[in-house]
Amino acid sequence: MLPDFAPIHLLYLAIAIALEIAANVLMKCSEGFRRKLPAVTAILCALAAFTALSYAIKGIQLSVAYGIWGGVGLIATAIFGITLFGERLRPTGWLGLFLIMAGVVLLKFS
C-alpha cells in the first residue's frame, strides 16, 4: 500500500496528469508545430506538468507517482485521440491499454 502522504500531493499529481494530457492534445492540434499558439501552449503545459509532478513526488514515492502520471496520462490521451480526432485502436492496442491500467493498479498496491 501507499505510505501516508498529504492530500495536496494527490492534487499536484492530478494537476500534472491534466497538464500532460493538455500538452499532448495541443501538440496534435499544432499540426507538427506549424500552428504557433497550440505549439507554444503545449510546451508550456508540458513544463507545468513536470513542475506539478516535482511537487507531487515530495510526498509520493517517485515510482508510484511517475507510474500513475504516465499510465493515466497515456490512457486518457488515447481516449482523447479516439474521441476528438477519430483515431482507432486495434485489439492489440486495447490490450496494451488494459495492461497499462493493470500495471498502475499493481503499482498502487506494491
TrEMBL record:
Localization, UniProt: Cell inner membrane; Cell membrane
Claim: Ribonucleoprotein is one of the keywords in the record: no
Membrane-spanning intervals of the chain: 6-27, 39-57, 63-85, 92-109
Main location, first listed in the record: membrane
Gene3D superfamilies referenced in this protein's UniProt entry, alphabetically: 1.10.3730.20
Keyword DNA-binding assigned: no
InterPro entries: EmrE-like, Small_drug/metabolite_transptr, Small_multidrug_res
Cleavable signal peptide: none
Stored Pfam families: Multi_Drug_Res
Highest taxon in the source lineage: Bacteria
UniProtKB keywords: Cell inner membrane, Cell membrane, Membrane, Transmembrane, Transmembrane helix
Membrane topology designation: Multi-pass membrane protein
Family designation: Belongs to the drug/metabolite transporter (DMT) superfamily. Small multidrug resistance (SMR) (TC 2.A.7.1) family.
SUBUNIT field: Forms a complex with MdtJ.
UniProt protein name: Spermidine export protein MdtI
Organism (species): Dyella caseinilytica
